[in-house]
Every structure is written in structure tokens, then in C-alpha cells.
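Posting this for the archive.
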Amino acid sequence: MTQQHHARSHGYSTDNANPTRSNLQKPGRFGLLFPELAAVPWTTGNPAQDDTVLRELGAAMHVADRKDGVIPAGFTYFGQFVDHDMTFDPTSLGENAVDVDDLVNFRTPALDLDSVYGSGPRDQPYLYQRNTTTASAQMLVGPAQIVPPAAPGGGDAQVQALDGQLYDLPRVADGLSEKTAVLGDKRNDENLIVAQLHRTMLHFHNAVSLKFPELSFADVRKVVTHHYQHIVLHEYLPAVAGALNVANALQELKYYLIGPGYLASSPYMPLEFAGAAYRFGHSMVRPAYNFNKVFNFAAGLQFADFRLAFTFTGDGGFLGGTRYPTNWLLDWRQMFDGLGAPAQRAFAIDAALTDRLRIGPNDDSPFLAQLNLVRGAKHYKLPSGQAVAARMGIAPLTAAQLESGTAGDMVKKHHLAHQTPLWFYILKEAEVLEGGKHLGPIGGTIVAEVIVGLIKDDPESVLNGGTPRALPKAGAHFTMTDLFKFVESMKGQGNIPAAGVINPLG
């Protein structure tokens, strides 16, 4: 295969966004957890030296040899899905500082699945299948497209049998093909894993609607959203932020303070979260995955290359096709535990990223870490890790800790042990204090408090109201495994394919 594949940045055009401008006290705005630290951002004081430091530190973070962590690989992309549900800053990755008051969040700062539902069937009817036997409008799902017999897996009877089955996102002709996904958030067609997570959420809504045909759309959405929030609160967050940090946030919020009597009366998206703490997921990305029985390690690393995940999407062009090819349907057993096979692990959360993560098609394209550092340190003007540690009353990492392991030589070379860019500091904290299992005290607290705070503040959330219907679960809390099994239990009904959703290729 000669075609080059590359990851994309998360910056998108705002041509079709049409946002509602608002002040800091209204939803849809960015803000700061620690505004008093805005006057002491990370910087050497010399712009040219800043460029050198960020470029060299970012390059040193990308390594070929990584170690497995303990978190199932699917949560790397579930975290991306959650991110798209909370926040969207479409500003460019320029080097000039921005005024936080001028930033607009194109998502509601809540875990309300607006990335799936948009503004609802009345305002965005093109997302919905309106004429159904249920009281609730169901979500549109698109058909997968058969692959040529000569393509990998093209001669497999199961692959062929899935032609036309509803395993793709809904798409609309854009003048050239039917590649453009019709979604509440276009970014969920960025790579094939998050795209199929989004499609699974469409099937999840439809499964709930079919199971409880008497429920209104509002109630079905509430059931779906509450169970999704259960997963976030009780499975995803403890895994990535640490169970203790989540428990503390559920008991008391110390830093993400909103509501009457506080500076921010309505939820906002802190830049310390969006530009640093929640970018830990980039460290978890593997260079290759067992995707399904066709594309896997046994077929060769070329076929397992994660960069192919960016090619077989509408954004990637499907290599000339128009819809999701049937040979790329995911085997979710490889991504989440409890579905019938041992799931792959995400890479450890540490100061390293796979060397495949470049933003561009060439070997000299910028590394993702370099762009993250530029955005955090120069674009958002985030404070140093040490400044945040002092503000939170947490003992800072020592020079020996910061100068150890991945990119430690760059920390030492550029004298960063006492003034460290926040994103790098948070990853190094996870590396040296938690062994890469999850985020450390600063990163874990910020991530837990913001997400828990957003859910607490939402009067319609699972923490503030009853759920119209409770779905079956195997343990104390509803999990991703439970979600997949519930959808699977409804296979062959409505627009849920008969082959199910866990491993449709068998």
C-alpha cells in the first residue's frame, strides 16, 4: 500500500457553525479554573527560545517503544467521544495568545449528548427517522457498502452478507459522493473508531426506543443520556482520573465552582482542562490495533496500522468509496472488556506518544505533541505545572522526577524542572506517581472535577433526577459492556442489524 495516512488536527472550519455569542457567565464559553495564574503563564521570556523549547520537548515525547497500560483500548476513543460532547474550540493553532473572553465553545458544556441529538427532531429533522412505530423519533443510521472481492476480506461470506446493513453513519450527497456524515458533531467521523462509537450510540437510542415504545423522545433521550453518564462517572472517569479523585469530586468540588455566589454562574469549559489535563488521551493511542478478523496483527502491521482509521471515514474518503466498507466493521471485543475476548490495552498514560502521531502526511510533518504544547503554552497562555501545584496545595514534582524517563533530557537541557508546561507536567505526573495507570493528583483532580461538575450542574442529569427506565446491568453500575449487550439483545428489530453490533463479522 503506497498511500500515506495521517492523523488530523481537531481544528475545523466554523463556516457552518452559526454559534450564539454569550458572556462568560453563560453556557458555551471558555474560562479559567485559576484566573489569578493567568499573569504568570509558562514562558522563557524569549519568543524564539520558546519556539525552540516547545519544538524540541514535543519531538522528544514521541517514541517508538511504548508500554501497555491497564485501561481497555476502546476508552481512548470513548474519551474522544466525551470530549466532542463537551467542547469544541475551532480556533486555529496559531502562536498568538487568545483572549479567553473571545473563545466560543461550539458544544454545550454538559454531557447531554448534543453531539448525537443536535438540537432535536424539531430543529434538525435530518438526523432522525420520524415515521416509526414508537412514540420516540429514532436516529437515522446509514448502510454499509460491500467491498470488491479483491479487497482484504472481500471474499469472505460474512463480509459480503453485510452489504447494505445499517452499520454506517447517515450520509448525504455533497455534490461528488455520499461521503459527508450527517451528525450533531462532524468530528465524530474523524476516525473509524470514534465514528463507530457514534453509530453505536445511534443504535443505543434506537434500541431503547424499541424496548420501550411507549416512551416519548424526551424520555428515551433521558434514558440514553443517564446511562451514558453512568458509564462516564463510574467506569471511564475512575479508570483515567483515579477512583479517589472521582470520589472526592463527587463529594465536594474545590476548584470547578459554578452557580450562585461564584464568579461563573453557569457551566463553562476551563482552558486548564481543554488545553492540558484532558489531552492525556493522546498518550494512550496505539500505533496499531486488532480491528477485526480482516485487519489485525496476524494480517500484518500494515493492515493493523491505526492511521488507516483516519482513511476509512468520510473525511478520509474511503479510498474512493462512498460509504463505510463492510470489511472495516469493528470487533468491539478487541476494544472493551467483558464482550467475549480479552481486549487490547491502551498505552500507559505518561509523557510519551507514539511516533506515528504526526499532523500531516509527511515524515517531517509536526508531531501532535508539538502542536499541543504550542496551543497550551503560547495560544492559551496556560500557567506552569508548578504554579498550578502551588495553587492546589499539592507538592510539586521534583527535578529528578521531571528529568527522568521520556523527554527528561529535554527538561534538563532547557531548565524546565521548576517551570514546566502544564500539559507535559500532567503527563509526567501520571508517569512517575501512578506508573501510567491513570492521571496523578493534579491532572486527575482537574479532569474529575470538571466532568463531575458539569453533570452535577445539569438539572436533568443522572445525579439530579430519576431515570424513566433502568436498563439491565451486570454489576453495581451500567458499563460499556452493558451498553453493547443491551443493543445486541435487540438485534434484528427495527433498524438494528440482525448480525448485532458487538462483532458483526463473526
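The CA atoms of residues 42 and 187 lie 30 Å apart. Confidence is low (pLDDT under 50) at residues 1-27, 89-96, 102-107.
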